[in-house]
Amino acid sequence: MAARTTVRITVQALLIAVLGLNVAQVTPALAQEDKKESEKATLVGVDTVIEERTHQTIPVIGRLVAQRSGVVSVLTKGVVADVLVRVGDRVHAGDDIARLLANSLTWSRELRVAEVNSAKASLANAKSQTSLRRQELKRLNNLKKSAAFSAARYEDAQKELSKAKSDAARAEAELARATANLNLAQIDLDNATIKAPYPGVVSAVHTEVGTYLNTGQPVVTMVDDSTMEIEADVPAAHTQGLLPGTHVSFTTGLAISQSATVRAVVPDEKPLTRTRAVRFAPVDTENLEGAAANQTVSINIPAGPERTVMTVHKDAVLTRNANRVVYVLVDGKAELRSVTLGETVGTRFTVIAGLKIGDTVVVRGNERLAPGQDIQANTSAPASRGQ
Q: Mind listing the domains of the chain with CATH numbers?
């Protein structure tokens, strides 16, 4: 019985020894696999250092101004019969705004028509008398060689012809005067209806039904919001490069960047601020729908000539010990470089030193990298190329 127990213990010890040997052999293999896994290259997002044309800009505060705005006045005197618009109404060119009582103007025109007809009748009579005197003078002229010829009668006929011609000329002048008065009466009658001189929005109404208006008094104030321009007071030192046609960008309250061109630089400098008024014409006026006169806009004007610069994406730049550094992909490893940067160009920095055109820099995952670490460009993700 003791012998059997001894054999059983020996077999168990042998199995334990064999299992222990296998575990000892497997453990280094697993450790080796873990080491290989840890040595795999890290996937990172990359971007390229590029060369591009740019120019430095400075922001200037401007305002939208309407090219056409102001008071619409009455062109003839009379009592207001009807006001057809209210504040905020949009009108088109030629739309009726208000009307005056036109009864007196209508009868004034009829009076002028009668005067024209009378002048036409007087002119016709004067021409008939002229023709008659001319025929009589011709008949007397044919009797010069006859004994019945009277020199005195011939002289009288000449004077009567001259008088008839003068009467005809006077009648023509009277007809011209009556016709002019008729035209003026027609203009007054037409002006009894006040019309919009251009499209726009009514911003104020200055009269009411029953008010007597003299010529030139205000009826409404209008603003044409379809022809907005931008006016900005630009420092005189920066107006030299703002030639007519120069393109600039601006933003309104909607924060949408839009384009405009320089239309004119007003040659009048303000001595206190050393600025000059500059007018800009928006390229796409449709995007200004809903804009208002005197609305504030921000304009980016060129501060210097256009030039070629080398740029790197902002996401590639890290700050280490108050220094700016970037990781560059070189032969599959992360190489840490110190860089000197300049001004901002969109979402990029200009590079003064530390990089060269074509360098591949890390823009995603660079916060966790260490110098010399194995890295690999993540080709499945789009490169960051903000402009």
A: 42-54+307-377 (2.40.420.20), 59-66+226-302 (2.40.30.170), 102-190 (1.10.287.470)
pLDDT band at 301 (very low <50, low <70, confident <90, very high): confident
H-assigned helices in the chain:
2-38, 103-142, 151-191
Please answer whether residues 69 and 220 qualify as being in contact, where contact means their C-beta atoms are separated by less than 8 angstroms.
Answer: no
Cα(317)–Cα(326) distance, integer angstroms: 5
What are the tokens at 71? 């008071």
Axis-axis angle for helices 103-142, 151-191 (nearest 10): 160
Structure tokens at 97: 């705004």
**pTM for the predicted model, two decimal places:** 0.57
- 276 and 265 Cβ atoms separated by less than 8 Å: yes
The Cα 113–Cα 309 span in angstroms is 79
Amino acid code (one letter) for 177: R
Instruction: Give the model confidence (pLDDT) of 24-41 as tens digits.
Output: 444 454 445 444 444 578
Over the stretch 225-264, which tens digit does the pLDDT of each residue have? 888 899 999 999 888 878 899 889 898 876 678 899 999 9
Task: Check: CB of residue 109 under 8 Å from CB of residue 186.
Answer: yes
Q: Measure Cα distances from 173 to 113, 118, 128 in Å.
A: 16, 13, 17
Q: How many CB atoms lie within 10 A of CB 155?
A: 11
Whole-angstrom Cα Rg for the chain: 48
pLDDT computed for residue 27 by the predictor: 47
